[in-house]
Specification:
Length: 861
């Protein structure tokens, strides 16, 4: 690196002599980029650890001070200030400079405003400030503390951009501005994001460090409770900023402050009075309105902004039956009412970027103040010594006034008089000049006494200044005294509350435990309804409208689950997704539902949900069994599917042209029946299928004849029966014992005869005597019927009419209901009947879940 630098310097020297030296482009790019990066880092983007200011802010404050545009003087036009800064110190864009000036005047952007603005300086709604020709500004009172002592040689000055003026490298800053106002900026390859703090807490911490420099972070945090944002809000938990105070980096969560008001008729409203830092209120309201419109957030009837000069007030009206805790939790989850703030305490230390823990930042400020106070005392000592020297000469002149007057009167020129005085009384040039400039009134006795008193005062001051410079403790006391005075003037109460780590309200804890019917249409709409919505009817009834579908849409999946269970979605492409049942929208019986892509937003193109299973937990005691259209079967432990990613996970690898048909839950000791469209069924024990990995393909479950395909899979037990239902509404029950057991991979046996009047097989599934089923047609008609009203017949029988269909309509979905187990209200059924708990328990042990899913099948001609 040193050799490269030497060669680069040599090349530059040669170029100055009029010679051009070839330079590798990568080397030139490296040096040019480093120069650019350091220019951005030091000259624009990062604040100095000492005064907490970037160059543009420092120049604005200094120029306003030079204009005497202070808090006790009249306002000046912002355009005048911008022009002054541009012309003298900061040759950049006027709009960027005005934006920097505006931000220092916004009480919602900066904790302690450094500029006192008059006019429109923007709002928390994101309104732009008025043009600089319309607004006026001056330094705020607290900004004066940043510039106090700047004329006492307390900081170094450097030439401005054209070398005609001097500007400070850093401000004296009696104010710990970096921490109390924070800073943000993006440099090259790095960024800073320092949160604001309460000035009283920071000063208390500084005072403690002066007295006890060995204090650790725990002691410091006894003073500094945490960040304190100008817009208030609530910081959730201490871990984020504690980590930032220790390492320089951390993330905190900030929530809006709100409370609940109860209106007339017991309606409630959410009142938001404080927002997280840097949240745009107008944009927030727009986002909330869009979420309500899209039904991503439910329970809100009205939204309005009632903010005024007295403060912020956003009103969110709720439905009468809405649970406010759920709505608030949804708002926190989906909107900026809860925001994160990434703390990066990066600042310039000796012109180098450095990541600063809290104690380091405080110590750097104290060292800066120590330097400023020391230089100030030295400056005052120098001035006192110079004045004492002059006063000494004046006193001598007064004591020898007659001789002085004679010398002056006898001199031809002032220079002659000065030289004579210097020679006669051994005076310095400065003393002689002061005597010549002395007014005659100094000859009075009173004036002489005044000079003597001044001389005595100067001697005492000189002694005091020397004493201070010789004792660091006295300098520390001065710093403490100044900080205490600032705390007394500007200290205020915290605005941001710090709460313990906020635990999100689990919505299922607030939602009643009940069973619901989840319905999915061919067009991808999903909804849930309480199971008691559907009432039982006689066999052969026409059913009731369970869903209002749009033209050419029809129901393809229907199942019963609990609001507290997980719903696992298995797609035709062999992928798995899941979500909680309560997140499925609860809509009216005639509603179409919500597009499933809104709940599973990462579905791939042409990917459709084929099977749904509900489970309460993921464990190694149960298995998922998969069946594909080409007769492939696979078994995998349920626990392998407990942590799906946003884009879903692979449930089963499919061969080209194949797709997933059905998925079932099993304890590992059941029998499987695979049924085909052409009326064949293969029954074999699942032990014939060994457990495989999640991404495995599987093995042959049933051998298919030409043009045949698998339409359903069910898990069976010896005691129960199989329900076969065809597309034209015919069904029958057949004892499982009539299905001869075969080995995995056999062609199977006949489950029903396929005739013109009954059509192809839609499903074959296991049912019990006291079960009920929901049958859904392509046109959206739904019938609920007890299984006992469907006749028991042999395998070769066609069956009886279960559902009377309109012309062109056909059965598309069937779901089995278990009255007591599923908690469905049958009090209004046409034929109420009390189910046998023993049969229900046995059925549940055999099938484990009510999760049947059926899809539209290619129909035979």
């Amino acid at each position: 690196m040193a050799d490269d630098g030497a060669e680069g310097s040599a090349a530059a020297a040669e170029e100055k002599k009029g010679k051009v030296t070839p330079q590798p482009i990568e080397r030139e790019m490296k040096y040019s980029y480093i120069d650019y990066a350091m220019s951005v880092i030091v000259g624009r983007a990062l604040p100095d650890v000492r005064d907490g200011l970037k160059p543009v802010h420092r120049r604005i404050l200094f120029a306003m001070n030079e204009l005497s545009n202070t808090y006790d003087k009249p306002y000046k036009k912002s355009a005048r200030v911008v022009g002054e800064v541009l012309g003298k110190y900061h040759p950049h864009g006027d709009l960027a400079l005005y934006d920097a000036l505006v931000r220092m005047a916004q009480d919602f952007s900066i904790r302690y405003t450094l500029i006192d603005g008059q006019g429109n300086f923007g709002s928390v709604d994101g309104d732009s400030p008025a043009a600089m020709r319309y607004t006026e500004c001056r330094l705020s009172k607290i900004a004066g503390e940043m510039l106090s002592g700047i004329d006492e040689e307390t900081v170094d000055f450097v030439p401005n951009f054209d070398g005609t003026l001097q500007e400070p490298l850093v401000l004296p800053s009696a104010l710990p501005n970096l921490l109390i106002n924070g800073s943000s900026g993006i440099a090259v390859g790095m960024a800073t994001n320092i949160p604001p703090h309460n000035i009283s807490e920071i000063i208390d911490a500084l005072a403690m460090l002066i007295e006890k420099p060995e204090s650790d972070l725990n002691a410091i945090m006894g003073c500094v409770k945490g960040p304190d944002f100008p817009t208030g809000g609530i910081i959730c938990g201490r871990q984020g900023f504690t980590e930032a105070y220790a390492t320089g980096r951390g993330i905190i969560r900030i929530r809006a402050r709100h409370h609940i008001e109860t209106k007339e008729k017991e309606k409630k409203r959410i009142i938001v009075t404080e927002l997280p830092y840097q949240v745009n209120k107008a944009e927030l309201l727009t986002v909330i309105a869009d979420l309500v419109k899209d039904k991503s957030i439910e329970g809100i009837t009205d939204l309005r902004d009632e903010s005024n000069r007295e403060g912020m007030r956003v009103v969110i009206e709720l439905k009468k039956d809405a649970m406010e805790d759920i709505v608030v939790n949804q708002l926190f989850s989906h909107t900026a009412l809860e925001s994160s703030f990434g703390i990066i305490n990066l600042a310039l230390v000796n012109n180098k970027p450095e990541l600063l823990p809290l104690k380091d930042a405080l110590c750097h400020f104290l060292r800066h103040r120590e330097s400023v106070v020391t230089r100030s005392v030295k400056y005052r000592l120098k001035k006192a010594e110079q004045r004492a020297h002059i006063v000494e000469g004046l006193l001598m002149a007064v004591d020898h006034i007659d001789e002085v007057i004679a010398i002056i009167r006898g001199s031809r020129k002032a220079e002659d008089a000065r030289g004579s005085l210097e020679q006669k009384f051994s005076l310095s040039e400065e003393q002689a000049k002061a005597i010549l400039d002395m007014k005659l009134q100094k000859l009075t006795g009173l004036e002489r006494e005044s000079l003597k008193e001044e001389d005595d005062e100067l001697e005492r001051n000189i002694a005091e200044f020397k004493k201070i410079l010789s004792d660091k403790t006295l300098i520390d006391n001065i710093i403490k005294s100044e900080l205490a005075e600032i705390r007394k003037k500007y200290g205020d109460e915290r605005r941001t509350e710090i709460s313990e780590a906020a635990e999100e309200i689990e919505i299922e804890d607030l939602i009643p435990v009940e069973d619901v019917v989840v319905t999915i249409t061919n067009a991808g709409y999903i909804k849930r309804l309480p199971a008691k919505t559907y009432t039982a009817q006689h066999r052969g009834g026409k059913g009731l409208i369970g869903m209002e579908t749009k033209e050419e849409d029809f129901v393809v999946s229907l199942f019963v689950t609990s609001t507290h269970d997980y719903i696992m979605f298995f797609t035709n492409k062999g992928r798995c997704y899941w979500l909680k049942t309560y997140r499925v929208p609860d809509e009216g019986r005639y509603a179409k539902g919500r597009p499933i892509v809104n709940l599973l937003p990462k579905l791939e193109k042409d990917e459709e949900v084929q099977s749904c299973i509900h489970v309460s937990e993921f464990d190694d005691k149960r298995f998922l069994i998969f069946a594909t259209r080409k007769g492939i079967i696979k078994k995998t432990y349920l626990s392998a599917y407990g942590n799906p990613r946003e884009k879903g996970i692979i449930a089963v690898n499919l061969e080209e042209g194949d797709e997933l048909v059905d998925t079932r839950l099993s304890y590992g000791d059941q029998e499987i029946v695979l049924a085909t469209k052409h009326g064949m069924a293969s029954r074999f024990h699942e032990k014939g299928v060994r457990p495989m990995g999640r991404t495995a393909t599987g093995v042959i479950g049933i051998r298919l004849r030409k043009d045949d395909e698998v339409v359903s899979m069910t898990l069976v037990s010896q005691e129960l029966v199989l329900l076969t239902l065809t597309e034209k509404g015919y069904g029958k029950r057949t004892p499982v014992s009539l299905y001869r057991k075969t080995k995995r991979g056999a062609h199977g046996v006949i489950t029903t005869k396929i005739l013109g009047k009954n059509g192809s097989v839609v499903t074959v599934q296991e049912v019990a005597e006291h079960d009920e089923i929901l049958v859904t047609s392509k046109e959206g008609m739904v019938i609920r019927i007890p299984v006992k009203y469907i006749s028991t017949m042999g395998r070769n029988a066609v069956g009886v009419r279960v559902m009377r269909l309109n012309d062109g309509d056909m059965v598309m979905a069937v779901s089995r209901l278990v009255s007591e187990r599923e908690g469905i209200d049958l009090t209004d059924s046409a034929h109420p009947d009390e189910a046998s708990q023993e049969a229900v328990e046995k059925n549940n042990a055999g099938n484990n879940a009510v999760n049947q899913d059926f899809r539209e099948r290619p129909q035979s001609s």
